[in-house]
Amino acid sequence: MYVGTYTDKGTADGVHLVRMNASTGALSRVAAFDAGPNPSFLALHPDGRTLYAVNELEEMNGQKTGSVRAFTIAPDTHALTQLGEELTGGGAPCYVSTDVTGNVLLVANYVGGSVERDSPAVSAPAAAFQWKDDTVDSSSLDTNSSGSRGWNARCLGPAPGRNSASPPCTCASDPCTASSR
Questions:
Q1: What is the pLDDT along the chain (181 residues), one digit of tens a residue?
Q2: Model-level pTM?
Q3: Hey, is 86 helix, strand or coil?
Q4: What is d(CA 156, CA 165) in angstroms, rounded to the nearest whole number?
Q5: What is the domain partition of the chain in residue ranges?
Q6: Domain covering 1-181, topology
Q7: Rounded to an integer, what distance in angstroms lies between the CA atom of residue 39 and that of residue 83?
């Protein structure tokens, strides 16, 4: 099992491979990998050969954005090798998932509430990400429950029975009430 964590300055290994003892539930660390700063949320591609990690930062390289990285998983050692990285177009990306086919990668940016949709080309490292122009920007929406404009996106996923994204949930206690069209 892979576990994403927040990293402190100077700490590089933010993704940990752990093994669980089925009898006791105890976890033991097998390895740790540098997945960039604050790889706080992870998603496994449905084929089990690619792992995605968000880098939950509000700013990278002077831009108000975080990033998402793709890694291949070695079949024998489960070691991670980076395929690519792409800026997410919004601050503090805190959620990443794929649709059931693995053809669509979804990222929720907490700051500003934008969500991104990607069609990852996991077999071509130089073109690991190709963001679509259908980014949802919630900044023009009404004031949310925290008093700021727009969403503070924390998650999103495929709409029931469809291979498209549902609106992001704004917090664990608020059910999503909007619907995809």
A1: 999 999 977 788 999 999 999 999 999 999 999 999 999 999 999 889 999 999 999 998 888 889 999 999 999 999 999 998 888 888 888 888 887 888 778 888 888 666 666 665 443 333 344 444 344 444 444 444 454 445 565 556 555 655 544 444 444 333 333 322 2
A2: 0.74
A3: strand
A4: 7
A5: 1-181
A6: Methylamine Dehydrogenase; Chain H (2.130.10)
A7: 15
